[in-house]
Every structure is written in C-alpha cells, then in structure tokens.
Amino acid sequence: MSVFIKYNKPGSLGTIFNVQVLWRFNSTTAETVRKEEDEEFRVLDILKKRDRQQKRTARKVNIQPDRADKMATDQNWGNVWPGPKTFHPSSVPLPLRQGYVPKGQAPPGKKANAELMKIPNFLHLTPPAIKTQCEAIKKYCTEWPKLLNSEDAIAKHYPVEVITSDYCHASPTIRNPLARIVHLRVKLSTLNLDKHAKDKFLRLVGDCYDEKTDFVTFISDRCPMRKQNLDYVNYLLTACYHESWNVEEWEKEKCEDDMEYYDWDNNASKKSLVNWHLRCNNQEINITDEEYKNYDISKISNANGYKEAVSSLMNDGENEDTVKNYGSAVRKLFGLPERKFIQS
Fold it and tell me: Which of 23, 193, 298, 334 sits a CA distance of 20 to 30 A from 245?
C-alpha cells in the first residue's frame, strides 16, 4: 500500500503539478507468505544421490615399438650417431645402466636416466666410425717420411717436444683447467751452443735443466688458454737462446778469480800438463797463454780422464768418489799400475 500526495496549481483545470510518494506499506499477499516459507531452516541431506555420469570408454592408441628394438644388427652405426650429442635411449640398442643404488640392487636403466644424459659420451667414436673418418681425410694427408723410421731420427730432426694433456670427466662442461698446462722440452746438446753461450744459458734456465737426462723443460700454466701457454714457452726458449749468445762488456773483463766454477782449460793445471808432455817429448816450451788454452789435449793419452777428474774434484768438492777418481786418473796418466788394497 502506498500514500500519494498531489499538488495542483491554482486556476488550473485539475492539472497535477507534482506527485510525492509519502509511504509504501508491504503487502501481505500470497507471494510474501511463500517467501517466508522458503527462508525456513533447511534440512542437511548427507546421503546425496550422485547423478549418474556417463562412463568413459578408453580409446585404444596404437603405440609404436621403441626404435632401439627395430634396429638391425648390421646397420651403419655412423649414420645413427654421426657426431657428439646428448644420450638418447631410443637411439642406442644397448642395455646401458648407470647411477648409484644401495648395495644389492641394479643401477637404473637407460630410459629417463639423467646420469647418462648429463655426461659426455663417445658413442660417435666407434672403431668403424673412426676408420671411415680417417679414410675420408686421408686424401688431404701426406705420407710419413721414410727417413723418420726410428726414435733417434725423429729426435734428431725434431728436437723440440711439446706435451699437453686432455681430460674427460663427468661434469656439465668438457673443459678442465689442467688442460691449459703446456710442457716444452729440448735437449741441451741439440742447441749447438758454444762454451760461453752454454754456461750463460744454464744460468738463465736455472732449475729447468736436468743434468741426468740433458733435457731443458719449460712449464707454463699462468695463462687461461693452452694456446697462450704454448706461445709463452716458445718465447722463453727463444729469449734464453738468443740472450745466451750476447756478450756484455763486463763479461770480457772476467778473470780466473771471478769464475763461478772451475774451468780446467783456463787454469794452471792444463798448463802444467802441457809442459810435462812437451818435456817428455823433448820439445821446446815456447807457448803463449792463448795457445795453452787452445791446446788439443787429445794428443796426450789419458788426458781427458785427468781433466774430468780434476774438474769434478774442484767443482764438487773432496769426497770419497772424487778423490778416488783423481788418484786413478793420475796413475793412468803416468802409466802406473792401479793401486791394490790387501784385505787383512
């Protein structure tokens, strides 16, 4: 129910000027009663009856057999795995297993095996594949020189040796920091150095020279790349070789007292030996100092052994071996019999 208020203008013929709704009352009709009934407390139905759902029918899928099961035993493996790539179980007809398991259990198979996928493999380097690749690049190679048929011949014509190492390990990367290390070695006798250059070269290389094997070895690992370390060791060998031939002005002023080691050719021991040899042969002694230094002692029997014994005694110091070798060399030089020791 609603209350309306109408406003009329004076003098108008029943014209409504404004209408205002003052109040609206709710109706108590049947619709209102039905709404109140719907708002009553609802009963909880625990055992609800499920609607019948339509059953799903499984669709048959035609699954193809694994590729590894269909491979022929006489296939060309180089066409299946031509180059390095990540492990794929369907392409490898082998029962491979890898992975850590407790004792007594078998390692995981090849399918869905992350251990086989994260490490590098050599499935592309089978003997038949390597043989095929070698035959392909053989036409670009030259024949091996026939004169290089021994290790001595190779060392004679190629005296410089470069040694590097490659590593293979289970890691996400194939690079190894140790692979950058380069060893370069060469025999000192193959450098064709004179006496002064040899002495200076040995002082420059220091501990890099091994007297037992006569090898000079340079090792470089300071650069991050192998090529950089190879260039560095080549530079070291070249710089030490050319620097050893340089003669400074102060080196010409060195005398016997300034020498760091005993040089038998520049000492009085050689002069005494030459004078003794000339007197034994009734020859006149009229030789200059330079002629004494350049005198060929190979004319004197057992002179080289005497030279080595005296040099070892002076440079290495007196010990049982050097004194014994010196005494034996003197007896051979004078033609005396060896000293005999009588055991009591």
Answer: 298
Give the 3-state secondary structure percentages of the chain, helix then strand then coil, rounded to 5.
Answer: 45, 10, 50
Q: What is the pLDDT of residues 2-28, one digit of tens each?
A: 554 555 555 544 444 454 544 454 445
Can you tell me the distance from the alpha carbon of 176 to that of 166, in angstroms, rounded to the nearest whole number?
Answer: 8
Give the tens place of pLDDT for each residue, 276-291: 888 888 877 777 877 7
CA distance 221 to 230: 9
Contact present, 256 and 266 (Cβ < 8 Å): yes
| pLDDT tens-place string over residues 69-88 | 888 888 888 889 988 888 99
Work out the percent of the chain whose per-residue pLDDT is above 70. 83
Per residue in 277-327, pLDDT (tens digit) is: 888 888 777 778 777 778 888 888 888 888 888 888 888 888 888 888 888
C-alpha of 44 from chain center: 77
C-alpha–C-alpha distance, residues 128 and 123, integer Å = 11
Query: Tokens 């620097």 sit at which residue?
Result: 243
β-strand partners of 16? 8
Q: How far is CA 296 from CA 60, 195, 270, 283, 326, in A?
A: 103, 16, 11, 16, 21
